[in-house]
Amino acid sequence: MLNRRSALALACAGALLAPLAAPAAAADYPTQAVTVVVPFAPGGGTDLLGRLIAQDLQKRLGQTFVVENRPGAAGTTGAAAVSRSAPDGYRLLMAATGALAPSPTAASASYDVKAQFSPVALAAAPPYLLVVNADFPANSVKELIALAKEKPESVSFASSGTGAASHLAAVLFEAKTGTKVLHVPYKGVGPAITDVVSGQVTAMFAPPPAALPHVKSGRLKVLGVTSAARSELFPDYPTVAEAGVPDYEAVGWFGLFGPAGMDAAIVERLNKEVIALLGTPEMKAQLANMGAVPNTMSPAAFATFIDEDTTKWAQLMRAAGIELK
């Protein structure tokens, strides 16, 4: 049995060695399989990018990275599950705008973005294309605004679901232009863009990969790009801001997160590996297919970016009376 002096000595030794153990654990990471939760169904942009990042991290770090799809409530179901996980780096979240940005207004979101997540790495922040059916009379953003003001809700906007990025972009458009449009939500980008192409719905803020094939075929018209500056991938299209809506900006983003309290050394290592991946020609080509270019940040800069983005969209949704179920 230890006497009091021996026990005290061991306790002090443990306290002194504890800070030294953390870097060693971080240096050995990962020592077991890592799960990357994608809070959307398979096949979408977040799923594709999450799988590419998981595959590359598996090669770079020499450990299995498994993708787990947990869709529901515009991405908040999967995000909430990760927020409750141990902050050891073995359960990560591949999120997009819809999974975290509107979360303060989501009844299903039992988490606080700032308090319960460790931002790890931003991968990309792609813009959307404001497209209308080819037969729609408006050929510019200003003409679209004029028609929308002439008769409220005569102009309809499709989205991939309430609270999705395509919906938030339309809500911001209404707020900036003083118009009232008819929101038509769908269960995914595919059926939404199909109805814009067929003329069932007037317009949509669509991901470039979904819209461009129809633009090239002449069935859709691009009125603007939602980034603050012209996209290097679509330099011929004006921004929505320069086309008639000052200060308009609505970009999506894809990024990797962990639960709050992750070891800073593990966060830095994952950030470094993701940035290295994004610099490869293969990944640049994959992102270009998604209408995006690599957009890398340090964990601290990414945290600031997420804070500003979530605040922006949450305020907009509250003002518009939008609540996710």
Q: What can you see in these coordinates?
A:
Keywords: Signal. This is Tripartite tricarboxylate transporter substrate binding protein. It comes from Xanthobacter tagetidis. Residues 1-26 form the signal peptide. Belongs to the UPF0065 (bug) family. The protein is α/β, with parallel strands linked by helices. The chain folds into two domains: 31-126 and 252-320, Bordetella uptake gene, domain 1 (D-Maltodextrin-Binding Protein, domain 2), CATH 3.40.190; 129-225, D-Maltodextrin-Binding Protein, domain 2. It has helices at residues 4-28, 45-61, 76-83, 97-100, 113-116, 141-150, 165-177, 189-198, 208-216, 264-278, 281-289, 299-320, and strands at 34-38, 65-69, 91-96, 117-124, 129-133, 156-159, 182-185, 203-206, 220-225, 254-259. The strands form two sheets. It has a five-stranded mixed beta sheet with strand order 2-1-3-10-4, with helices on both faces. The longest helix is centred in the first third of the chain and has 25 residues, at 4-28. The termini are far apart.
